[in-house]
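User: Continuing from earlier, I have the next pair ready.

Assistant: Great, send them over.

User: Here they are, in order.

Assistant: Folding the first of the pair now:
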Amino acid sequence: MLKRDILESMLSKITDDEFGVIWKDTYGCLPVGGRSELAKDFVAEQYDGELDGCIALAESFLTHDRKPKPKNKWLPPR
């Protein structure tokens, strides 16, 4: 698969906040608009060398442990 396809696929799997981090890291501002269109435009505008960094950042978001919030020991169990 091409790097652009890989990045676009990863961008569809991360949260909106994580997408915002990648966008802000690249452009210095937060994204405005529909996320699916933004992702397509973002992928199309990246140079080949930039794709590797964006893929690595998106991959780090996808591979980190999404741990549930710790339970409050003072509340009764549900």
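And the other member of the pair:
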Amino acid sequence: MNRLVYTGLICLLFALSCKKEKVESFFNYDPPISPITKTIKTTTAIGYCATLSMAYFKGYSIPNAIINNNGSTTIFYVNLDGNYPFGNSRDYFSELIVLASRISEDVAILTIFFTDTDIGVGNFTLMNVRTIPVIWDEEKITAIYASQDINFGSDTLMDITLTNEEISFELSRFSIQRTSDEQVAIDQNAWIIDVYHQNTLENMYDDNYVLYGGEQNVQLCYADEIPESSMLQMAIIGAEISPDCIKNPNEGVVFMQNAMVSEDVVLGHVFLHFPDDCAGKALVIAATGSYLLSSGKKYDLNLD
């Protein structure tokens, strides 16, 4: 049995034995949705920057960017206003800065600064993303990041300086495998973004993004969803995201497990599915423990 679940179960039995009046409310928690929303917003922003950079390196013009070079680093000042396919009414999109260090013909490492753009979920705002390895092939562009790559600092340095060891570490992320096993995805603690470019790098509005990955101790975005002391693990398997529908992915599943014991007790698992009706919701297809009564319910992703 997963150590998180085992420990939480022991605490749960103790807590409920002392507070029998809370047994009914224990099964009536809504699953946290904002971590899903945050991950999708981060994914689409990184995927867009990865595609833009690789398109330039493959010889395509980037009309919505001013491009400079600083030694081995290519700097893109990107105008998102009216150009970003995943823009929505809840965020502000103006300019971002992408630094790209080209490692080989098909590989680059990116750093992204959201200098005049406000992409947020609750009390979380996406500000900076560092050292994202990107690789191109005839079918897709792949970028990989982990939670520690997000909002790493406020200094906007205009170059990427990495040692050979640091470059090797970044490139080693390409060995991370896409998996349909949620526990394996969580243990990898990384997100894989595949951008299927349709061999039209000049057109970023026909790209399909597919997300695989997982994370432990997910940063929660709304304080009222789950108390901060909880331990949340999340995996997203095969979430396909397209500019044709920015309200929700049109397929894929999410797995979450959570354990928290303080004044309240939260312990449970939940599986969610993205319907293809573009209604902006995720459907709970199975749930246990604290999320038991959420089975069959749909929850707003707040992506539009």
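Worth noting for the second one:
The first helix runs from residue 3 to 18. The chain has a mean pLDDT of 88.
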